[in-house]
Model the fold of this input.
Amino acid sequence: MSAVAECPICTMPEPLLAVDGFECATCGHEWMTDPDPADAAGEVRDVNGNLLADGDDVVIIKDLKLDGKAGGIKVGTKVKSIRLIPGDHPIDGKVNGRGVLIMADKVKKA
Ligand SMILES: [Zn+2]
Done:
């Protein structure tokens, strides 16, 4: 999300902000800020479709098993100050002091 925007044509950084995207001050090329939000890195939504961000608190909505470890994460467990990472389990958080990776459809924004 916070990657530096650059012109896809001439690769000049720091384009001008246009109405619904960017405009390159160097070559005049215009492009949209987010052509496919669903695939953009950092776009992680909870089970209700709310956008999650680094530092959010989420609540577990389904009992989760932790691979190869005893115990698990119970429904209603709050995971504070999550961090978003690329991959199938995009939510990186800590539960009872243990680092866990959680799928986005197993949580709701707290
Ligand atoms: Zn350009």
